[in-house]
Amino acid sequence: MPPRAIISYDDTPGDHDALMLGRTLADAGASLTLAYVRHSTQSDSSRELLEEAEARALLDRGTRRLDEVGVETRVVVSPSTPEGLIHLARDEEADIIVFGSDYRTPPGRVAPQHSTQRLLESSPAAVAIAPADYLESRIHRIGVLAVAGDDSTIATARSLADSFGASLTRDERQVDLLVVGSRMEAPWGQVMLSAQAQNEIEGARCPVLIVPRGVTIEFPAVLAHAA
Questions:
Q1: What backbone phi and psi angles, to 5 degrees, belong to 81?
Q2: 114: helix, coil or strand?
């Protein structure tokens, strides 16, 4: 079964970057779901119908921008964006949650949004972050920042490399994608970053995928034959 990726989307420029990263993951065989988190419902039924319609229209704009076949959409109601996404990921057994960078991030750099930071402490799914002004591109070199004693990070990176026809490297700088492992203190199946990993992410100039402790994400080798 291909991995499932949820893209956090509310039509901001950073979320447009998340769409491009989602499309890159789709090239590796991931199925995509666009999710918008509403923070409340309206007691007045007519206003509730209007806000629901606006949320659906927002997601429709995202799917058109994404230009991918078979993209699903979800409107989630939660007072907290990260909590809403965590509940959705658990309900749908998603493997990855995709974000753009903070709106103040310089082009080409990675900086987690406030909502992303919460998931970097306890997400049950891997967290992917796109650089600011990210444009979809072929993945030729994948960097790995693994934790001793947890082979899931390397296994996930190797699966991605097989899918993209890419090579693996320990050089975290000159790469097209960086796969990062969670710290050993993290509960099994949850994301939790070390200070070193946090520094590497903030210095990255490519998309970053943070893998939960002990969890390998398997990608189909859909591009291994490509030139």
A1: -60, -50
A2: helix
DSSP 151: T
> To 10 degrees, what angle do helices 13-27 and 45-66 make?
50
| CA gap 35, 6 in Å, rounded | 7
The DSSP 8-state label assigned to residue 80 in this structure reads S
* Secondary element (H or E) of residue 51: helix 45-66
Q: Tokens at residue 147, please?
A: 């934790």
Q: How far are the Cα atoms of 8, 10, 84, 150, 206 from residue 123, in angstroms, in the given order?
A: 14, 20, 11, 17, 21
How far, in Å, CA of 151 to CA of 143, rounded?
Answer: 14
Residue 44: the pLDDT is 77
Q: Is pTM beyond 0.90 here? A: yes
Task: Find out whether 68 and 23 touch, Cβ atoms under 8 Å.
Answer: yes
**Cross-strand pairs, 127:** 97, 210
Half-sphere exposure of 96 (CA within 13 A, CB side): 33
Angle at 131 between CA 100 and CA 89, to 5 degrees: 35
| Both tokens assigned to 95 | 């493997």
Question: β-strands 177-181, 208-211: how paired?
Answer: parallel
Q: What is the pLDDT of residues 100-126, one digit of tens each?
A: 999 999 999 999 999 899 999 999 999
Which of 128, 110, 15, 129 shows the shortest CA–CA distance to 61? Answer: 15
DSSP state letter for 181: E
Question: 141-145, 154-158, 169-173 — which is least confidently predicted?
Answer: 169-173
